[in-house]
Amino acid sequence: MRRTAGETIIFWxxxxxxxxxxxxxxxxxxxxxxxxxxxxxxxxxxxxxxHTARVRYSxxxxxxxxxxxxxxxxxIVERMRGMAHRTPVLRxxxxxxxxxxPITFLTATVFWLLAAFRPDRSPDLTMxxxxxxxxxxxxxxxxLVAQSIFLALAICLDEQDEPVFPRWVAxxxxxxxxxxxxxxxxxxxxxxxxxxxxxxxxxxxNVAIALWIVVMSAVLGQSLRHxxxxxxxxxxxx
Length: 238
Fold this sequence. Notes:
By secondary structure, this protein is mainly alpha-helical.
């Protein structure tokens, strides 16, 4: 009961964190619309000069709250303990991905923050930091892909009468993994659908990540409710 109560407390912090993520996303002027990788050094420098305050505040918000993904991922890992597996290796793989994926986003926010830290520096240096931020943010998806695949595999191997997560959640995670794979190749193009401002690398990837957070939050909430409903029955059966 104490474990379930702790998980419930963490779960109900997710809406507040989601509001902060959304606010930071819209606060950063480089997302809507996404900055073009074809912009010249002078255009990039002018962007950071004109939007210095917004870039700084939005990146600080994202920097602080990137780590807020970890509690949600650990809730999934804790749920995986109840799966019918002969080995905990898939859970350990999820832990590894959970530690690495938020760091990728955090690193990208630091690069963007550096670009806005001295807006009067050489435009070429500002463009370098901007490129580092965008390429890191866009291409750093392998951990997210692996995370979804590990979770999907764990769900498929959970052959209980009442599995921890429904089987459709496994198929959903595979679809999410497929959707974000193209973003990993954004460093190969400055135009088209896989460029960092392209349809696949920006819009599909970010919508897929947001959809994954929403759906997995709902599934986690359902799993926690199931545990609470089953908890009183255990002592009675004993």
